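Extended Data, panel c. Modelled sequence:
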Amino acid sequence: MKKVYVNEQWCLGCHLCEYYCAFANSGMDNMVDALKDKKIYPRIQVEEGNGINFAVNCRHCDDPVCVKSCITGALQIDDGVITVDQDKCVGCYTCILACPYGAVMPAEGGKVIQKCELCLQNACGEPACVKGCPNRAIVYEER
């Protein structure tokens, strides 16, 4: 299965992956209308420190503790991709506490969670963060 991988030695810390992610999941056709003067809620987060930058995203684990911890069954595994059923999520944040990578986060408004779903619902062909990374520090491949 293809997954998103980050090559931290190539990451510039530009945060463009966050903007492309937020836009891809906004449901809008125009990036300026979707993001200008708004707080963004990307499903990937760039961490910076000590000269190393890297993007934190869902690793779609083979044995995901976030799915096991979900009390409502809102997190499910579909063909290896961990997805969120927003209608089932009650915002208890147990999955946020359980994820060892910090890849599950509150969604806009904070009533439910969000996480990377590899842009499968966006029909981008590949994750928007990968397409938007100017240095190819983020890749979508099978390893």
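The longest strand covers residues 45-49. This feature is highlighted in the accompanying rendering.
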